[in-house]
Amino acid sequence: MIHRKGIILAGGSGTRLSPITNAISKQLVPIYDKPMIYYPLTTLMMVGIKEIMIITTKRDEKAFRTLFKNGNHLGISIKYAIQDNPDGIPQALLIAQEFIGDSPIVLVLGDNIFHGSNLIQSLKEANLDDENSTIFAYPVKDPERYGVVEFDGNYNVLNIEEKPKDPKTNYAVTGLYFYQNQVIKKIKNLKPSKRGELEITDLNQLLLSEHRLKIQLLGRGAAWLDTGTCDSLHEASSFIKIIEQRQGFKIGCPEEVSWRQKWISDQQLIKLSKSLLKSGYGEYLMQLIDSSNSKNKYLLGNTPNSIKS
Questions:
Q1: By the 8 A CB rule, do 96 and 11 touch?
Q2: What local confidence, expressed as pLDDT, does residue 300 receive?
Q3: Over 50: is that where the pLDDT of 227 sits?
Q4: How far apart are CA 172 and CA 181, in angstroms?
Q5: CA-CA distance, 38 to 165, in Å (whole number)?
Q6: Which domains are seen in the chain, by residue range?
Q7: Strand 222-226 relative to strand 112-116, pairing
Q8: pTM for this entry
């Protein structure tokens, strides 16, 4: 079994969200009913990742520690590291090098939200691949803001270009990367770009040239939200609110994910819920315990893929 470690990059200055981020980390800003970082955290947890490092700024480290402590209450282990300067996404893996050790890695950006019915299966497939690295591409209407994947007529990947003025496709690379451990050595040989940063696109392009990179396309059944601007923040909150209120189950709820993974018991879940009852979040956790009857079971999103008549 592959023992992959997770990295959440929650650093940066969040200038596109100022003045909100003048006093708080972008990744702690609420997306509807929970902090932004809950969503990438639960993405890792749903794949089965239990050892996680949060990389943040010196200013914000205390706030993250207050929120998560060491993660034991969620049945996981959370460690912390400081990124003094935002010198590119690959830098996160160098900062976490001691934590990573010889393990393969999954890196997720702390402001990215993933949701979809078939998404977890795709992530689990990437997690189990012990030979190749895997990244995910998603169709967007403004690809010039992202790293863009170029294909031939048979959807074979030809190139990955960072923020192109004339994008060849509308498929943007998302902020979720499954890497083999060997990328650490490759990052050390990367040259900073004109912006003075190590570019994740340069790393991905290198892996592509070595035929060590898989790119999975996320289609209409999946949603990818990059919440780095005020407009996208509002859109993400509305998206989460609509789904949660219509379907009756929460998205990005680490307590629930841990309980469903059997990392914590019913009794531990009840204990976690008690301090959260007034917000309604705790009531939701309490209701999970009674989800064994069919009505609640289906309300909580445990329906099978097909139902026989």
A1: no
A2: 42
A3: yes
A4: 24
A5: 33
A6: 5-232 (3.90.550.10), 265-309 (no CATH)
A7: antiparallel
A8: 0.91
